[in-house]
């Protein structure tokens, strides 16, 4: 009798262990499923991110801190995608961003970079995150320049390495293009009379005039509609896909609109 009782106790214990093992296996499976939701991509723990520091309101220095629309957006994307920004966001001159991605100095760049076929040959891009274009800024008392055609024979300030500089080269026959590394130099050259007009991205021109350039006005239409994208060093397909998924999520959950409204006003 004692042996039979002991045998039943042993069997019950064995069954209990098997049930617990099965439950544990189920939990592991659920955990694997949960991991797969955020682990579809083979990502590094962190990436080196670079930006500009004078493209208001996208990225600029304020009280010693790099702030702006792009800075908040890439921070939110990194959090959503599940990777860290390696240290602080680095800064360099705009014309050094693409070469830096090519040489491996940087892995991700966010700096109001227009997506072009030429650039897509050297770096990869995320889905577009901002629709832009090119416009003209002149002194408020200038009545002679009202369109692209009026820039023929004029001295025009723009940014070195920008699509605006390329646009001017391709669309004007007689011109003097003065490219500058820093955007404040572009506008100051018009304000102090060294250039007849400035040509650059519409959101930056409008923001500068609204906040700083009291003596300037925007004229003419918006030329060459273009999209900004996050640039990524070639060979990081999973990173591109993860950034695109994160960007889509930020649009869906309202985070993108919150960041946009903070820097540009209501997106409605």
UniProtKB/TrEMBL annotation:
<comment type="similarity">
    <text>Belongs to the bacterial solute-binding protein 3 family.</text>
</comment>
<dbReference type="GO" id="GO:0015276">
    <property type="term" value="F:ligand-gated monoatomic ion channel activity"/>
</dbReference>
<dbReference type="Pfam" id="PF00497">
    <property type="entry name" value="SBP_bac_3"/>
</dbReference>
<keyword id="KW-0732">Signal</keyword>
<dbReference type="InterPro" id="IPR001320">
    <property type="entry name" value="Iontro_rcpt_C"/>
</dbReference>
<feature type="domain" description="Ionotropic glutamate receptor C-terminal">
    <location>
        <begin position="46"/>
        <end position="266"/>
    </location>
</feature>
<dbReference type="InterPro" id="IPR001638">
    <property type="entry name" value="Solute-binding_3/MltF_N"/>
</dbReference>
<dbReference type="InterPro" id="IPR018313">
    <property type="entry name" value="SBP_3_CS"/>
</dbReference>
<keyword id="KW-0564">Palmitate</keyword>
<keyword id="KW-0449">Lipoprotein</keyword>
<feature type="domain" description="Solute-binding protein family 3/N-terminal">
    <location>
        <begin position="46"/>
        <end position="267"/>
    </location>
</feature>
<dbReference type="GO" id="GO:0016020">
    <property type="term" value="C:membrane"/>
</dbReference>
<protein>
    <submittedName>
        <fullName>Glutamine ABC transporter substrate-binding protein GlnH</fullName>
    </submittedName>
</protein>
<feature type="signal peptide">
    <location>
        <begin position="1"/>
        <end position="21"/>
    </location>
</feature>
<dbReference type="GO" id="GO:0030313">
    <property type="term" value="C:cell envelope"/>
</dbReference>
